Amino acid sequence: MTDRFLPMRSGRDPWGSRRAALQLGGAAALGAVLPCWPVQAQDQTGGDPLGSMQWPGIVRKFMGQGAWHFTDEVIVKGPEFAEDAMNVPIWLDARALQRSAGPIERIVVVADRNPIQHILDFEPLNSWPVLAFRLRMEQGSPVRALVRTQDGRWHVGQTWVNAAGGGCTVPGASRADGSWSRTLNQVQARVFRNVLEGGTRLRLRIMHPMDTGLVGGIPAFHLEQLELRDAQDRPSWRMHLHEPVSENPLLTLELGDGAQGPWQLLGRDNNGNRIDERFKA
Fold first, then answer.
1. Global pTM value
2. In whole angstroms, what is the distance from residue 104 CA to residue 124 CA?
């Protein structure tokens, strides 16, 4: 089978350097106990309504010189307080933006105060720009969806999630008991019709330990690329995942009007282990 994916990224920091960076930032992690975010001066936060000192860096790192603005047309929802910092549910919906600004090229999800800020990239392609997933959080943080439309502009939606902390720096359950090797990259899929009017909902669970590389002696090991193809072998959506996505990722997507199976899920992790799973409604 021809490899449809982009080349594997290189030049990423080794897991040891990330642990060191996290240790150096240990004092900042104490902010997780605060009940709400601090109010910062506008010149330090770039006018961020959530008052995040990391926001100017997020802008430079992920949006560069592109035009951007905050908008209510990108909805991001999470729990007010996440009791389980290793499984924080997030739901995002950019359908209103798509109706007003046209097709969406890419959605970048970031958590400002995570030691690894980049959570995932989502290209809706022929699906709706709606996604639910779970992530690990090291402390309370803004969680944002940076949405780029075809005109090159960025539209930013966000929410604040308080978390008990430590979600990125402890091993997952399957790593602790060793069961991950027996279920690696197994896929469970369910299809639901008309959960959102006129749509087709796909819920996926992919078995993978999703190690962040921030636990001593356990290097980063995570799903890296996923792509869904329809019965005509056309891509329905594409996703690039990073270390903070929760163990055994649970992903919910809306395939849109008239989606027809059977479908094929293709993917791989950062060690080159492949996924090739076919399923139907």
1. 0.84
2. 7
Q: How far apart are CA 6 and CA 111, in angstroms?
A: 24
Instruction: Tokens for 180, please give them.
Output: 């991950």
Q: Is 151 strand, coil or helix?
A: coil
* Residue carrying the six token digits 């290793």: 86
Look at residue 165 in the predicted model and tell me its pLDDT: 82
Per DSSP, what are the bridge partners of residue 134? 89
Cα 34 to Cα 37, 38, 42, 69, 219, distances in angstroms: 7, 9, 20, 28, 31
Domains (range + CATH), the chain: 16-279 (2.60.40.2470)
* The pair of three-digit structure tokens given for residue 278, joined into one six-digit string: 């076919």
Split at pLDDT 50, 70, 90, the class of 25 is very low
Indicate the burial class of 100 (C-beta count within 10 angstroms; 0-12, 13-18, 19 or more).
exposed
Sign of CA dihedral 174, 175, 178, 181: positive
pLDDT tens per residue across span 67-113: 999 999 999 999 999 999 999 999 999 999 999 999 999 999 999 99
Backbone dihedral angles phi then psi of residue 25, each to the nearest 5 degrees:
-95, 15
Q: Are 131 and 92 in contact (CB under 8 A)?
A: yes
Strands (E), the chain: 68-70, 75-77, 81-82, 88-93, 104-111, 118-123, 130-135, 141-149, 154-163, 187-193, 200-206, 223-229, 235-241, 250-254, 263-269, 274-279
Per-residue pLDDT reduced to its tens digit, 160-189: 999 988 999 999 899 888 899 999 999 999
